[in-house]
Amino acid sequence: MMKHKCIVSDPEKCNGCRICELVCSGVKEGGFNPLVSRIRTVRIEPLINTSIACRLCEDPKCVKSCPRKALRIDENTGVITVDEDRCDGCCWCIEACEFGTIFLHPEKRKVFVCDLCGMDPKCIEFCPKDALVLMTPEEIGQKMRKRATIKSLAEQT
Amino acid sequence: MFGYAGKILYVDLNRNKTKVTVIKNGFCEKYVGGNGFAIRLLYDNTKPKIEPFDRENTLIFAVGPFAGTMVPTSGKHMVQAKSPLTGFMGESVSSGMWGQALKRAGYDAVVIRGKAEKPTYLFIDDDNIHFRDAKNLWGQDSIQTSDMIVEEIGDENVCVAAIGPAGEHLVRFANITNDRYRQAGRTGMGAVMGSKNLKAVAVRGTKKIEVHNLDKLMEVCHDLNEQFQGPGGEFYRKWGTPGMVLIMNHMASLPTRNYQQATFELAENISGEHIVEHYIAKAISCAGCPIACDHISVIEGGPHTGTVTSVEFETLYALGSECGIGYFPAIAKATDLCDRLGMDTISTGVTIGWAMECYERDILTNEDTDGTELTFGNHEALIEVINKIAHREGIGNLLAEGVKKASEKVGKGSKHFAMHNKGLELPGYDLRGLKASALGFMTSTRGGCHLRSQMYDFDVKGKIDRFKAEKSLGKMVMDREDLLAVVDSLMLCKFIRGVFYTFDKFAELYRLVTGIEMTADKLQKAGERIYNLEKAYNIREGWTKKDDYPPPRIMKDPIPDGVAKGSVVTRQEFEIMLNAYFEARGWSKEGTPQKQKLAELGLEDIAEDVGV
């Protein structure tokens, strides 16, 4: 089976506006707060901007690390699901995740992670610069190959 | 409460005490937020005629009802205090992330009174307020200060607003830098902060901001964000403000060599077109902004290699054409220095431009400059003098006073070409060929400013005859001032005007966010109320009609070059416009709000202060 799609940010297009964080918290939490967003913007001043959400790893360390088996992979979408009855907020999954894309909810004290909004991510819909896309690794590769070719040809001419 | 946090934080630096008060709906409707909140708080919390550097001066930070929500560009905040540059109302707007953080911490405004015994920084950590030792931060530049505080607290969600050495040394046009890269630039708010021994205000806000109608708000904002990707946002997306350089130069409206010319022969070298092609690495956004106008330039090669900074039109004018400098890398370096040292680039450039003219006219000599050849175009001297101003060394001590006070001190006819209004150095629009702007810049309650009425939107864009001083401009300026007072109170960016800029749209968004039944009429009234209150504050501090006149050069020396050659704003012309403006406002011939007007605006309580 094809590797699952995940949210990919293009750092060349991302301006660091953090609208994705506002949208995500609005949709998922009913109010605005980047600290409860499933996608996070990384701004390294002055020039680096990108946003990161769950990478949907093939063999996720977050799932493996959970001592209570609260995390599972959805077989159809690859999305990580959290069983809130099992999660006790120990945060080993947060330590295990290499991308920092699973989070502890400040009020519920349970972890939460991007669920791709049922394969229709709101952050992508709202990104004003079209920096976010939902893609499989093959699709990302196609995009990067095309970009590299165009860039290389432009430099030669 | 929706949109608003509903609380004001009072900080007393004399005693390291804090207090929180609750805001009522009535206050919100009446003063909207940001500008409106801050001027009312300044009016009520400072005694008349205090010295700006007195511990009794009150420094106010305020955000608007939209801060932290999806409303495009709403991540701005307002800083107000009595200005050490003008002696009137000081007011400065910044963007970035800091304002949203303050809202999430649970406050619509912070009122800072008193003076700390030793260098201190304030850490607003949601409900917990800490007074922290800033001994190791004193002397550090604004960016280092921010980095050190974030590291000390150990959380990158902390947003910092800090002063640099210029604020510590009470440079009268010192600014406040937040989030490392944005400035509350004008009217010397950083100097007020320095006078309070307050190095920085760090904020961590972790609370959720709730709005009245979330679904509808998201829908409306999605539509607005899309529109910004079209023609309505194109100019700022593509060029940022530097796109203005060639437009102004072609119109002979680009002040050059301290307004001795209105065209600059090296304008191409400092134009948006040139910079975007050769230096711009990326355009970035402030919080919640779909435009991304902030063009970051990177200098590679030459003496300023490694300089990375954001450059705006006003800076290209003030540190460029105003000083006769057309070498972009030096302007970028000078900008970066001003940002780090914590000084407003407009005031810095215009004050140095004045000093260069003084030097060329032998009013200032090598003795005054410690041998520095302060001639127009000498960009090495520019950089040297910027450093001296921030530390008040040598000639820097004089220039740190701003051009008004410096020219009063030096005399010898130099007041004739001290380019300011009410002590605030003028932005980059040669007013002699822009009559609507001339009026709008002069009636500005914070002194010479393009952003109280944005009248350049009319005369630069050719919507009106820019050379004609007509009575009708009085009402036009008033209407724009009232609109922009609301923009500054909702705390939206003025670069949204290509997409939404009407009381109707603002009222719609206000209702969706707050649930308060706001109308366009009520918002317009609020704008008028806020502007009248600012005026009343200035009158209380000693303002008279003569403070609204342009500097002598604008009224007496015609533009010598370009398509605006021969233009000047005569005293008579200006008076026609100013009197029409007072009349439109319902003020007396001397510019005082009348009792009836104040009553109409619900400001009866201040009538006595303005002597009516």
Q: How is this structure best described in words?
A:
The complex is a heterodimer of chains A (157) and B (612). Chain A is an alpha+beta fold and 157 residues long. Chain A has two domains: 1-53 and 115-157, Alpha-Beta Plaits; 57-113, Alpha-Beta Plaits. Helix content of chain A is 29%, strand content 19%. Chain A has a two-stranded antiparallel sheet. A two-stranded antiparallel sheet of chain A has the order 2-3. In chain A, strands 4-5 form a two-stranded antiparallel ribbon. Chain B has 612 residues and is an alpha+beta fold. Chain B has three domains: 7-204, Aldehyde Ferredoxin Oxidoreductase,  A, domain 1 (4-Layer Sandwich); 218-419, Aldehyde Ferredoxin Oxidoreductase Protein, subunit A, domain 2 (Orthogonal Bundle); 436-445 and 454-550 and 570-610, Aldehyde Ferredoxin Oxidoreductase Protein, subunit A, domain 3, CATH 1.10.599. Chain B contains 25 helices and 17 strands. Chain B has a six-stranded mixed β-sheet, with helices on both faces. In chain B, a hairpin with a 4-residue loop joins strand 1 (7-12) and strand 2. In chain B, helix 2 (34-45) packs across helix 20, helix 2 (34-45) packs parallel to helix 22 (520-540) and helix 20 (472-490) packs across helix 24 (571-585). Classes of the chains: A alpha+beta (157), B alpha+beta (612).
Radius of gyration of chain A: 17 Å
Class from secondary-structure proportions of chain A: alpha+beta
**How would you describe the shape of chain A?**
globular
**Which range does the strand content of chain A fall in?**
15-25%
Segments of chain B where pLDDT lies below 50 for 5+ residues? none
Low-pLDDT residue intervals, each spanning 5 or more residues of chain A: none
Q: State the share of residues found in helices of chain A, binned by percent.
A: 25-40%
Distance between the termini of chain A: 41 Å
Biggest chain contact: A-B, 27 and 37 residues
The description of the largest β-sheet of chain B is: 6 strands, mixed
Distance between the termini of chain B: 37 Å
Q: Please count the helical segments of chain B.
A: 25
Under CATH, the topology of the largest domain in chain A can be stated as: Alpha-Beta Plaits
> What is the number of strand segments of chain A?
8
The DSSP helix count of chain A reads 5
The overall pLDDT of chain B, averaged over residues, is: 97
Radius of gyration of chain B: 22 Å
CATH class category label of the largest domain in chain A:
Alpha Beta
Total count of strands of chain B: 17
Shape of chain B: globular
